[in-house]
Amino acid sequence: MTQWWILLAVVYLLSLQAAAQHHRKALYPAAYRVKRGAYSLINPTFQHSQEDAGLLFEILLSGMQIRGDNDTLLIPDEELASLRRVKALEIICEDVLPKKLSEIRRLTAELARRRRPLGWQDFERTVLTLVYTSQTLAQTADPYQRGLWTDSLMQLFRAVQKDLRPS
Q1: What are the pLDDT digits (tens) for 128-159?
Q2: Is residue 32 exposed (0-12), middle (13-18) or buried (19+ Cβ within 10 Å)?
Q3: Which residues pair with 66 in a beta bridge?
Q4: Residues of the chain with confidence (pLDDT) below 70
Q5: pLDDT score, position 46
Q6: Could you tell me if residue 104 is inside a domain?
Q7: Assigned domain for 156 exists
Q8: Domain range for residue 109?
Q9: CB-count exposure of residue 38 (10 Å: 0-12, 13-18, 19+)
C-alpha cells in the first residue's frame, strides 16, 4: 500500500514538472541562440522606451519589408535605416522571427494555448511576425498557400487582439 502512494506522488510531481516546463517554453526559441557571436544579442528586443515604440511605428509606416527568402530587412527610408537602433530590429527580423509556414503555424498553436498575457518581448515579436505574414500573404499566388498564410495571419491577429484585451 505504501508503494502505491509513493508511485502516485512521483507521477504527480512529474506532471507538475512537465506543466512548469510547458509554461516556460519559449515562443521564439531562436531569440535565445547566439548567432552573431555577441552575448548581448541573446533575447534581442527593439523597444525599450516610448521613443523606441514611436521609432518602430515610423519604420513600419515607411514601408519596411521583412523578406524571408534571403533574410533581409528592407527599410526604404535611408535615414531611418542608418540609425544604430535599427541593428537590433534587423537581428530580430533576420534571426529570431519564424519565416517558414510550419514555424509560424507552430507559433500560432502555442499562442492559442496560452492563458497568460504575452511578455513585452514576445508581444513585439508576434506583431513583427504578423507584419511578415501579411507581407508574405500579399506575394503568394497559389490559392492553397494563400489559404494557409491567411489562416496563420488571422490566428496571429487574434493572439495580438486577445493580448490587448483587458483581463
Answers
A1: 999 999 999 999 999 999 999 999 999 999 99
A2: exposed
A3: 73
A4: 1-25, 33-42, 69-71, 167
A5: 86
A6: yes
A7: yes
A8: 28-164
A9: exposed
